[in-house]
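Hi there, hope your week has been kind to you so far. Please have a think about how the structure follows from the sequence. I've dropped the whole record in just underneath, so have a look:

_____
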Amino acid sequence: MEPKLTHLCYCLLLFLPLLSQSAIAKPSSSPNSNNSINFIVSSCHTTRYPKLCIKCLAAFASKIGHSKNRLAQTALAVTLVRVRSTTVYVAKLTRARRIKRREYLAVKDCVENLGDGLGMLAQSMREMKQVGRSGRSRDEFLWRLSNVETWVSAALTDETTCLDGFDGKVMDGMVKSAIRRRVVHVARVTSNALALVNRFAARHKL
């Protein structure tokens, strides 16, 4: 499992420029930045968790501007970072003291699901970058967008499946509580990213 996570973390490095500290440290208060914030707010209101969406993306307003493509790319990049962090956290729980065997197996399955989802998100980021390049035919453009929608949706399914192994009162406890809190959060972030990708795609399918 660790080699797989290492490979996925390496893929993540390709997208860190979108999440540079300079974009977070000094948000601009210029009129253009304020307009970009308004664009993010209006876009996020089309998602299931708008407040979380705004919180995740507002710091990147200057990079996003009014581009639905950059908005979707940034949402995917933020999701990728958060899922990666959660995957690493959950993986560490397999080495927790006094973990029961049933909990260990559930955590192990959860790590595999999150790892699969992380791979799907990394693919989606690469494909979304291709979507943004000029010179694509309409058919190729829509095909690549469809790939992104499919892979992000699959990642969301993987995150939801992660929690299935903790069903039932017999699994109640600190391990389940800690994992559920983090996985529910990243599932919501992923859901928002998917909504923004779908919105971008719908605009071009008309």
Q: What stands out?
A: The CA atoms of residues 149 and 198 lie 7 Å apart. Residues 174-205 form the longest helix (32 residues). The chain has a mean pLDDT of 84.
